[in-house]
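User: Before I run my own analysis I want an independent prediction to cross-check against. Here's the chain; please return only the structure tokens and, at the end, one sentence I can use as a sanity check.
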Amino acid sequence: MARPIKEGFPKWNPQRTTIFVINLSDIKLKYKKLRNSSSAFIKRKDVKDYIFKRDNYKCVLCGGKKNLQVDHIHSVWEVVHNKYPLELLNTEGNLQILCKKCNAGKSP
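Assistant: Structure tokens:
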């Protein structure tokens, strides 16, 4: 039997090991662990479907409809360097659809 479809944006629940590591002082380790956890979340079908539908299946910058990707507005790097709050990283308001070209050309 298929799972019921939930309404609204899915919640990101990082594993305990991710929470433990991001409280350490090693920036490289924090970045790697958080990046992996965040990437796994935004690759989920329910997350992608929600963001794609919200952004009308097109790049929010150029309007293109090919090679689309889910992208963070405020990056994992900003979270690791305490420039953006962790709890807002993988929220609906911090994710957008960009084409591959716009995502690659985005300034840090």
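Sanity check: The first strand starts at residue 68 and ends at 72.
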